Every structure is written in structure tokens, then in C-alpha cells.
Amino acid sequence: MARFPQRLESPLAYEIARALIDGFDRHYRLFRLESARAKQRYEAADWHGQQRAQRERIEFYDLRVREAVARLETEFRAHEQPMAVWQEAKLHYIGLLIDHHQPELAETFFNSVSTKILHRTYFHNEFIFVRPAVSTEYIENDEPAASATYRAYYPSRESLHETLTRVIDNFRLQRPFQDLPRDTAQVCRVMAHRLAPMRLRANFQIQVLSSLFYRNKGAYAVGKIINGFTELPFALPILHDDDGQLVIDACLFGEDELQMLFSFARAYFMVDMEVPSAYVQFLRSLMPRKPRAEIYNALGLAKQGKTLFYRDFLYHLRHSSDKFRIAPGIRGMVMLVFDLPSFPYVFKLIRDEFPPQKETTREQVQGKYLLVKQHDRVGRMADTLEYSEVAFARDRFEDELVEEIRRHAPSQLEISDRDGDGREEVIIKHLYIERRMIPLNIYLQEAFDAGALGQVERAVIEYGNAIKDLVAANIFPGDMLWKNFGVTRHGKVVFYDYDEIEYLTDCHFRHVPQARTEEEELSGEVWWRVGPRDVFPETFAPFLLGNPTVREVFMRHHADLLDPAFWQMHKERIQSGHVFDVFPYEHDKRFVYQASSELAA
């Protein structure tokens, strides 16, 4: 039980708390300003600027934390202050959050700063926020000029089209639509089809979040239809057409389609939020199965996502009894992977040494993971949570796993009672955590074993689509073996092995040279000169297409991936400044596709 002071008597503690809240407010002000500017970049079709801003915004948090640490050390010699001062500082800080609009984020900021100053033995509830101290329920900005979190509209069946037009007009986009009445009529047609079997109840309404969600070349209006006890989530993607005018591209409906839009394998949105917890609460009503941690991540608030993930993880550990084990599947040459069977994530740490064919270093591997964090993941690369000094109860680890870590990553392992509480812990120095997926090689084998050839075909097609989406995002995956891809619960194929990825524009795509002699033609070795970033797509086939069924499907749908011309064409277009469209929804959802299908019929 924490023993807090009965009275707050230290003026220094208040000044420390005040400096911390100033540091957080500066961070969120800059974060929100950059997010709000996404609207102007979208209107100007500044796609490179949008991508650059998404990348740079990720660094904001750590910069502000370092600034706050430097201020506390310079002004207050914070590391020298007794624990009584830090106890009071936390209580003062709680008081400063009572009417704050982002209290949960501010608590996380307090933790980030204080844990860089305090010794690890003080990382518990007396000195940091292990659990939230301030409620985020029902927070709203009551200032007269402030926007509400969402707008509510009350159409009838007859006025639905007019209402949808008003929904879009209220975002005040400073670029003309090609034909907004046509687009909203298409949305109205889709919605009316969903509503046709329903009787409209007294509470029939449409609720739409007040800010658009910006990512890459798209803006998304996100909301829900409420009718009686039914709530139907929807999202409307707004894109630029070839002439630079705006069009509503599709109408996405239901939790599964919104889950795809907010996937952990996509870049973070830019959205202007005064009260982020209110946005998260609204989005959670649309996607109740999606963890709050992943929603915060999707909104660009990755540190809060990490905080919530870790709280959920500790809660799960407390209410489970299974043990961490070596993860099933083919063991990697760079990463050592383990999991907890009852928990839907995997834990990855970098091995201390790599086999000769892996010419890399720990620092380079960490750089690849950072590249993925900052890059547009286009729904094809899993996001990762990165932690340092993670402590687990020793009795939750299988002995085989401990020995595996001791053998292959001893520099990352400490087993001790560091906290002095009488319980031995396994402490991992540096760790990546990501969503667990079914490895694609295992998925295919299970499908073959079950005789599910349709499932095999879909998976192979998805595999090729995943590579092509990565290519469009200027990513060459490097090691394209099936085992380096996973299948999500929605059937999407996602890449998760990053130690060999490169920017497409840094690679040289070449044909295999013609053999000059019979010896060269019969040689089982590579006889031609190969540069460090030379890629020979024709050589992919022997490694990927040994199974005749897989080969037939692959060659029917993705034979171009074996042709250097495909890769070179995309490389040249990216170098010329082109930004490819990669849609977070199926092609047949697009209104332009539906219109062409109707004409063809």
C-alpha cells in the first residue's frame, strides 16, 4: 500500500509537476498542429509532404520527453530529489489533470519522463501511473468555438440524400468535388439498401466524427447509423480523381471493413482531436473487438498505445497460468521468437550472432524495424511495439525457452531478483511485440492437408497482392519466402520479417545473364557478378514455386513478379515522383468499379 503524504508541503514538487504538464502541453499542441495541417496538404495534393509529415510526427514524442528531462535536470536537479518530492509531484500532477482534455496522454508523458530520471526500483504505483488516476469519461471541450467530438444528423428516408450532402459539406474541404450530388446519391443507394428491411425508429440518426481521417492520398469520414438498438458503422473514403477533383470512392460498412481500414498493418492516421479519448470511445463503439491500444496507435498516439497494451498484458498475465514458449514454426536466423499461447501476440528479440548468409548487425536490424514504423505499411507490414528492460516472472517461462535465449541471445537476457521482492524474473533487454498471425507456409500446408484448394488459391493470390502493394509503397521485401508472411484473421497476407527489406529505389533489378559456356550453363553456383543490391527476379521461382498447384496459381495471377521489367517500371515511376494508390478496401467496393460493371452488364 502506497504511503502518500497527508499534506502537500513541497513547493518544489509543485514546480516539477507544473514543468511536466507544460512539457506535455507543448507536445500535444505541436502534435495536434501537425495533424490539423494534414487537411491543407490533402487539399493541395501534397502527397510527399503528407508522407513526410506522417514520418516526422512519430518522432515528436521522444523529442518532447528529452526536452522535459533536460528542463527538470537543469532547473530542479531532478535526479537528486528525494522520493517524498516525487510522491508529492505525482499528486500535484493529478490535480493539474482534473479539467485537462488529454489526461490519459499526460499520465503516460509523466511516466516517460520520470522513468528516465528515477531508478528502476521506483517504477511502481507510488511514483508513476501504473493505472490511470483520472477518468477520461465524458470529456468535452466546452469552449464556445470548440467542435463537438461528433455531429448528429436526423434524416428521414426521403431526406437521406440531402443529409449526406450536408455531412460532407460540413468538412469544408477547399477543393471542388467532381459531382458531390452524384457521389452522395451512390452512398444513399448503398445505405438505403441496408435500411430497406428496417422500420425507422424514433432515434434514427447518423453520427459522424467531426474531423476527417487523413492518410496518404485519402481522407475518410467515419461514423455510424443508429436505428433502435442497431448501430451500423460506416466510412466514406474521399479521393482525388485524375483531374484533381474530389470524389467519394466507396461506402464501407460494418465492423470488419472498418477493422481493415484501421488495421495494425497500416500507417497511422492524421486527425485533429481536442479530446482523443472521446474519439477512441466513439471508434470503439464501431469496432468493439479492437483493443483500445490499437485504436490509439491508429490515431498516431503510439506511446499511449504502448501504455494500454502493457496494462492489458499485465492484466492477462494475472488471469492466466500458461507459460511462454518458443513460437511454433521455422526458427528465424535473425530473430528469436516466443509467445504465450493464450495471448494473441508474439515476442521477438534479435539474436547475438547471425549465420554467414545474413550479412547484418543488430543496429542494422533495429534500423529496418524503425523504417517500417515510419513508413507507409499499406496494410502489408505488421506494426510493432518496441520495449526495453521488460521483466517477466521466471516461473512463467518454459526452461527450453530460457535455454534458447541463453544460447542465442545471452546479451539480451538477465535472470535475477532485481527488484528485491523475493521473486526471480526473466528480464529481456530489448524486445519487439507484434500481432500473432498464422505463418503463410503453415497456412498453405494446412489447406493442402484439408484438400481446401480454393483456400490455397486465395492465399497465393493474396501473397502476390501483398508483394505488389509493398512495391507500390517503395518497399522490396528482400526475403520473399512463404514463412516470412502471415495470414490475419481477415485472410489478409502480411509481411513480418524485416531484416532484409530495402527501398525499391535502392535496388538494381537485372535479368540473369546468358551463359557463355557449357560449364556456366550447367553450374549449380551463381557464376555471374552480383552487386550488394542486385536483384534477379527470375531466380525467385525455384524457391517459391516448387509445388505444382502453387506454381499454376502464381503464374496465372502474378507471373510479372518474375520479370525484372515489372520491378524496374515501378522503381522508375516512384523515382519520377509518382505516388501509387493502395486501397484499404477491396477493389469491388469502389463506385467507379461498380459503375463500369453495370455498364458491362
TrEMBL record:
GO terms for molecular function: [isocitrate dehydrogenase (NADP+)] kinase activity; AMP binding; ATP binding; phosphoprotein phosphatase activity; protein serine/threonine kinase activity. It holds the Pfam family AceK_kinase. It is found in: Cytoplasm. Its main location: cytoplasm. Keywords: ATP-binding, Cytoplasm, Glyoxylate bypass, Hydrolase, Kinase, Nucleotide-binding, Protein phosphatase, Serine/threonine-protein kinase, Transferase, Tricarboxylic acid cycle. GO terms for biological process: glucose metabolic process; glyoxylate cycle; tricarboxylic acid cycle. Signal peptide: none annotated. It catalyses: L-seryl-[isocitrate dehydrogenase] + ATP = O-phospho-L-seryl-[isocitrate dehydrogenase] + ADP + H(+). Residues 17-321 form the Isocitrate dehydrogenase kinase/phosphatase (AceK) regulatory domain. Residues 322-586 form the Isocitrate dehydrogenase kinase/phosphatase (AceK) kinase domain. ATP binds at residues 327-333, 348. Its EC number is 2.7.11.5, 3.1.3.-. It comes from the Bacteria. Belongs to the AceK family. HAMAP family: AceK. This is Isocitrate dehydrogenase kinase/phosphatase. The gene is aceK.
